[in-house]
Request: fold
Amino acid sequence: MSFEITQNNNGTRVGVLKTHRGDIVTPFFMPDATRASVRGITNEQLTSVGVHPMVVNTYHLLLQPGMDLMRNAGGIHEFMGWDGPLLSDSGGYQVYSLIHKNEKLGKITEDGAVFKSVLDGSKHLLTPEKAIQIQFDLGVDMMVLLDDPRPNNVPEQEIEKAVDRTIRWAERCKIEFEKQVTKRSFDDKTRPLLFAVVQGGPFIHLRKKCADALIEIGFDGYSFGGRHIDEDGEFMTEIIEKTASFMPEDKPRFALGIGTPQDIVKCHNVGWDMFDCVIPTREGRHGRLFLHNDTEISEDGQFYGTMNIANAKFKNDFTPIDNKCGCYACKNYTRAYIHHLFRVGEPLGGQMAALHNLKFYVKLMSMLQIKK
Reply:
């Protein structure tokens, strides 16, 4: 497995990431198949719009269906019937979010994250070692180490402690990763890729400290940890750009959870290669559709627009969602019909809208891949 940059224009990169289940041209977007599915969409439909890699979540799959069933199924690919590359998030962000909302549900210790299941109240300990073991049991092609994320608005001292812990956990993850590679008889061609996570909140010096330490340990790729927006919802341009610059040129850079079309373009322009988010599918299920405009891709977001298909003005609109799309919904249905499906609560409406949005994202990635 390797990463090759085929084009670099002032830091805006195009490349190829080689995985055990196929090459992926960067930049690329991964839909979130959080619980081993992209909600309401079949594998055949995903393939039809050009989806290749996807993201699954360690935290959610640990709780349900559990690792015993996953091992019995032969791994996540066999379980969900998907033969494309899969990346697993470690679940650290989900666990911390759970505890942040209700401290009675768990706590973060040096050993790991202790938390109660929201499904049945059972107690779990997610250590760096266990997070790696679970992801090997899943059988994914790319995995993310367990980190200690914190909100951007907490004191600098707290974020620095989280950075230090993230570094210590990264060392433990790397050791366990190498043990599992040996135990499971992987070689350099078949083993999964391991991504580190650079934390540091809104503090550039802490991002640099974290990145330098993680590079010293050595990983296959590096990720942006935490939120990419400040307390006012503003895109943290300098933090995003500086963090990318701290990472090795010859390694893929994963902008975890960054997913609006405009933010993806901003990140790609300063050197980020990989993206994932629930936005295209979640927004689609709520009737918000993305449309291509006849303008060049730019950071101001003028290259796309959105529409709420449930609005009454689409009741008698017998045109396709987007003439420039070509997805199943745009080729076979009208805005009026999709509007009708949403108005009567028919799940097909949300399915078609989500599928259309995924096609939009796949096309956006293709356009970025050829952008000079």
Observations:
- The longest strand covers residues 12-19.
- DSSP finds 14 helices and 16 strands in the chain.
- The radius of gyration is 21 Å.
